[in-house]
Amino acid sequence: MEWVFDGIGTEIISLLAGFLGGGFIGYKIGIKNKISQRQKGGNHVSQTQIGSIVNNGNSESRK
C-alpha cells in the first residue's frame, strides 16, 4: 500500500524552484521595459497622451 503523501517533498521543492525561476525571469523582463509619458494641460480640458516605450534600447513612439 502506497502512502498518500509519498513524493510530496519533491513536489514542494519543484514548486518553489518554479516560483523562484518564474519570478526572476518576470523581473528581468519587467525591469527592461520603460515607459515615459508627459502631459500638458490645465483644468477642465481634454488631454491626449504622448509617450514612448523603450524595450531593450529600442524606442517606439505611440500617440
Number of helices: 1
What is the H/E order? Answer: HEEE
Q: Percent of residues in beta strands?
A: 25-35%
Radius of gyration (CA) equals 23 Å
- The residue ranges in which pLDDT falls below 50 over 5 or more consecutive positions are none
In which order are the strands of the major sheet placed? Answer: 1-2-3
Helical amount: 25-40%
Largest sheet: 3 strands, antiparallel
Query: What's the end-to-end separation, in Å?
Result: 66 Å
Class of secondary structure makeup: alpha+beta
Shape: elongated
Mean pLDDT: 76
Number of strands: 3
Structural features, described:
- By secondary structure, the protein is of the alpha+beta class.
- 40% of the residues lie in helices and 27% in strands.
- The chain contains one helix and three strands, in the order αβββ.
- It has one helix spanning 8-32; strands spanning 33-38, 50-55, 58-62.
- A three-stranded antiparallel sheet has the order 1-2-3.
- It is elongated and about 70 Å long.
- It starts with 7 loop residues before the first helix and ends with a strand.
- 0% of the residues are buried.
